Amino acid sequence: MIIDVHAHWGPWFFTMDVAEVNLAVMDRYGIDLAVVSATEAVIYDAPSGNRALAPVLEGTARLYGYVTVNPRRLADAERDLREYLPTGRFVGAKIHTDYTRSPVTSPQMREALAMLAELGCPALVHTWDASVLDLAQVCLDLPGLRAIAGHMGATGWRHAIEAARACDRLYLEPCWSHAPAGRFAEVAAAVDARQLLFGTDATLIDPASAFGAVAAAGLTGETAERVAWRNAADLFGLEIPPGHGSPSAPPER
Amino acid sequence: MTAFDAEGLIGDLTVTLDVDVLVGAYPDRDGPPGTPAEVCETLARHRITAGAVAGLRAALFDVRSGNDEILALDRPDLLPVGAVDLRDPVGAGGELERLAGSGARAVRLFPDEQGVEADFPSVRHVARRATDLGLAILTGGDVRRFWRPFAGLGARVVFLDTHFYHLGDFLVTAADEPGFHTSTRLLNSPDALETAAGHVGAERLLYGSRTPHYEPVVPLLRLATSGLTPGEVAGVAGGNARRLLGLEAQS
């Protein structure tokens, strides 16, 4: 059982043709469920992309959705969150700091994350290098916020370790097109296993990158299970098919 | 077994020549020591039977002694690749002649590590000299810029840092340059290998891992799960590199 907490649906502007391949790419690696954001929503127009994604989620049980939030358009975001979260097919919010030019430290980003904290909505936030530390600080400042540090800082995975150890409501997922040797093993050895998730960035990046990085870490037992799906099921309250156990009770920390 | 069963996905895929292997360590990074023994152990663990290996001593500090270390490696699983310092184009010319005379089949360029840009005269000079000497060129650097100094020379080049973001740029220049090839290390989008094979042929793709600094399993997984034919996969996994480096008769 594998749940991918960082995936996308829709076309990309690079030399690639992957708009229709979500399930096929998941099948390559035995990924059962993925939480996707619409590329249109992330890159260009959040409401339009969220609206396009909604019927797709109705058509398959294997994809859940992120409501993409543009911190510069908070009224739109609030409307979309109140419309789509109650459907149960959208289970979190996605914020890309670069495409919206809204660093984690910006006022609009803080306001967006405060809104998500109030709604009890998990937020996947793009992080790179030391910005993951900024996200940890916002988590500390907003007690209701549960945030996933997308890419776990990419080049800044050692910052991600520090960030996750500072706040137990900050989760890390490893996707990145680069795979420096030992990166995920180092993080897994230093961070509470309850804060580790699996994300791929598919269909931009093939799951080979994150899957290989996690496989190389040689996780075993409960830690491997937590990374593969259990933490994600807990965080998003996902229904898990029979045979995979039930989501665990939230840890008391 | 966990859900992350890479071996199960890779199956019996064997890489017969990895075009991107290093020995030595980067002084500015935490990371593996990169001893030949450690590198070979990593390759073997991933069923990579041979690697085209260059040395960071030559790339970062002293070309001659660094290359001597590489040329002295007497292991069937390591194919020596020389390096030159692009910061010293005059010395690089002499070192290329020495490498060619010693039987090296390829030279590796480290423009990023040496702070050299694609339009520096040094790169064009080394590209000409290496090609004239019959050496294949393995080069780092952004392919969107580093295609230019190798164009129009009939050079045999492997771009080691081609990212799938820049695949289109590689493809349009490779269409005009039959000697242009790319490592698959960063071609890890869901369809980059298949797209490249469809446009310029899978024979332009060479498995590269950058062992021991990158996870070899990532490009292995991508290749193993690709839509390439078994023959194309075998080519990417080493056949193409052996042809490029003139090793076919020995394999």
From TrEMBL, chain A:
Highest rank taxon of the organism: Bacteria
GO molecular function terms listed in the Swiss-Prot or TrEMBL record: carboxy-lyase activity; hydrolase activity
Keyword Hydrolase applies: yes
Amidohydrolase-related domain location: 3-238
GO biological process: secondary metabolic process
Pfam short name (any one): Amidohydro_2
Keyword Zinc-finger annotated: no
Keywords, in A-Z order: Hydrolase, Lyase
SUPFAM superfamilies linked to this entry: Metallo-dependent hydrolases
Name under which the protein is recorded: Metal-dependent hydrolase
Organism this protein belongs to: Streptosporangium minutum
